[in-house]
Protein 1
Amino acid sequence: MTPFPRRTITNPSVHSQSAIMDCKLSSDSKTAHCTFNDLSQFDQEKTGKLDPVGLLTVIRQAVESGWSMHDTFGLAASISKDANLFLIANCLDIYPLFYSNFSTQMPAQCDVSVVYVGRTSIVHEVSFKIKESGEVLATSLALAVFVNLESRRPRPWPESFTNAYIEKTTVQKPSIHVQFARLPPSDCKLYCHKTVVSSGDIDMNNHVGNPTYIKYCMDCATFGARDKAYTLIKGDLADYPITCITYFFFNESLLHDELMVTSWEDRAKPFKLYFSIRTEEKDIMQCTFTFNVRHVGSNL
């Protein structure tokens, strides 16, 4: 299996321009099919490959394109100048074909559909695939919350929206991220990395964008692997394909915030790393990376 290339992890803020070439609705208006003809803008080192942070950025663009399309998911009329959707949790599963069969010059497609609607929340299911063959390279469950932009608090959906998706309000909410203790066991070996939020990290909602947090975690893991902070994950992080990323947000972080990224490994499954990001005053988010077991085993 080919790992993601040895390169600087994509800075999603640098590549904020949408790469979507076309977005169409299914005949029942329940699924958006977003096509990307070329994703080379996410390939900073010109290797022809996409890293997991770039993949999350592409998926975010597909979901946001679904929101902005006229009558897509019935969300266009619900999003206004004083309210918007904030992505707060995600479970991304990355399949081997992503690393071995895909290049950024190949046309790709994201299929985005609604699988759950709560009082203030919505869950999208996303599949990322090679457009020509239909091979699925990754899947994602993304949880978003309808937020009042002034109070920064969740607000209920308009009745017209919940009525349009009444069948999605009665299904069981998918499990996206299993929250872990915000502080690790006292006997865990920790590896910490500090970072300061720069203007390039801020998105259209005036806070740090989701893929940027994953970049912070990738930076922490990269330094930790080089410093031999983990049992299995050592040396060059690019040697270890990531198979799953999950995350959940507790709070926002803003420009100039000083963030502490703390990482530690699962003692029973050392191919899994946990991350906690916080300021001195509050918890911001938590995240997990799971690496390919077979590939990790070959590096022991």
Protein 2
Amino acid sequence: MKPKRRSAAPSSTVVADAEKALREENDRLRAEVAYLKKLQALIRSKRSAAPTKRD
């Protein structure tokens, strides 16, 4: 007895769900990159600022 073969193309709902998940992950990663860039700029500006003498 031969095993049943799956259809070659996945159903449209599976593709849509996978695409939605990838888009959400992409949006999250873009937000993370933007946050990290701002954080790096803040750290860079604090390091390059001339230290002030406190008495």
Protein 3
Amino acid sequence: MAPPSGPLTLTLAGGSAIVSRGVGSGPLAGRATGSVSVSFAEAMAVPPEFSLVGPSVVCSAADSRATYRALTLEGLGRALTYTWNVTLEADTTLTQRTTLEVWQGINEVMERDATYGTGAVSVYTINTSPLIADDFNYQVFAKAQTWAGGSRSLFRAFRVVSSGLSVAVVGPDRIAAGGLYTYRATAVLCGGEQRGFKYAWRLPGMPASALEGLDSATLRLDTAQLVWQSEFVLTCVVTSMDTGDVGTGSLRLRPVGGGVRARLPAERRSVSAGQPVFLDGSRSADLDRRPGSLAFTWSCQLADGGGGCFVGKPGALRRLEQHLGQEAVSQPTLRVPADLLGADTWYRFTLRVEKNSDVDEASTEVFVGRQRRPRLWINRNQDFFSPYEPIYIPAQVSTDWRVTVRWETEYELPAAALDSASFQPTDVAGGTRRRPFDLVLPPLEQPGDRCMSLSLCVSVSLYLCL
């Protein structure tokens, strides 16, 4: 059951079936009744923590496949729901002809994809042979959603090649001190025989005695000797002994054990002007569970220029932190009153968490806006198309709010055309600028003087938990 949107009243009853616990002497009640009102806070829908791993280079040879894995990083009690997609990397510029071929390949990949889950892992396998091999990047998109409505999206960029080696490093990307971890390098020679590979692993900052299998496909890592830092890059260089091709795969490793962790629900969010800004850092924690309390400090900067956040009248401006007061910016949660921040501006709020000598920070960007409508661009270079040739109309979307975008038409199209990605509702995140959303249609093969009306539609995405 998902959490209700309002308060929930729980009633305790049941007579002698109640189990009572207490400390001290004297009789305990055998029967008890009562109620408590529970308000489900915004923190229940916090985005889940997960990582996305897979190859950064894939092959376009016939029947080539690439596998990506979404790994849950926290024990959430219930399995996450994953949504997968393949798209182009943001801000990719292509010619009209190339764009048509690229999106046709993406649509074909989506028709053949396969997804399966094993508890905390969701595996996504795609047939990469329809993709165009060129000097630009595609993206695998994974969206994880909890039962309470919290969601997070991650992208993994990859390039398609027609020759050479594709290497993927698979294994846990969160590591703890004193642990044993296993990593495997998978190499695929595009268009060649899959044999005769030479492996060489690298992990800067790690003594060779802590690495087992430096010259094999499988590496075992003992972190007991690791000199801890904020991030490590594990790399495997693979060489084909037959062709001399060289490929590289890497995986970023982040320590999770020890110290404090600052946590905020989302990296970006938007609020309407006239509404207060509420930020919740109460999920921050000391991973070592040492005695004592965490110390919190909130700060604010302009997201675009890095300057401080100033409020007040001209001639009497003060930093937001000073205006709110020391007590307000030293709590796990921060509330900025309505109408205090200027509209149509991105602000970056940073939470600093300290305990003993350990420090960690987390930031979230907040857009305060006047509910400006999303902007759409349709680059209509021609109005007449041959019924025997594909139709391509480039379009772009910019929005400060999470919206759903899709193409619509009252013209009777073949089912295959309506199943294309252009006519499927697609979520676009707040803060998106000039995101391509092109219309791609196969040849309609319906000759005659006919016209169709096409609309690029935007609606606000609203998520309700009941």
Protein 4
Amino acid sequence: MSLYILSGACAEEPDFDTRYEEAEKEISAKAEAIDAELAGDSEEAKGETER
């Protein structure tokens, strides 16, 4: 019975390419969020210095 459980757990694990694609999407999304945040901060800084 324990072999059945182990083989079932291995079958559900995604392969390397799937994990890589998921990680790439997460990293890209985080990078875009950081870029947007930095762009927003720089726009706010410009507005504050122009006053």
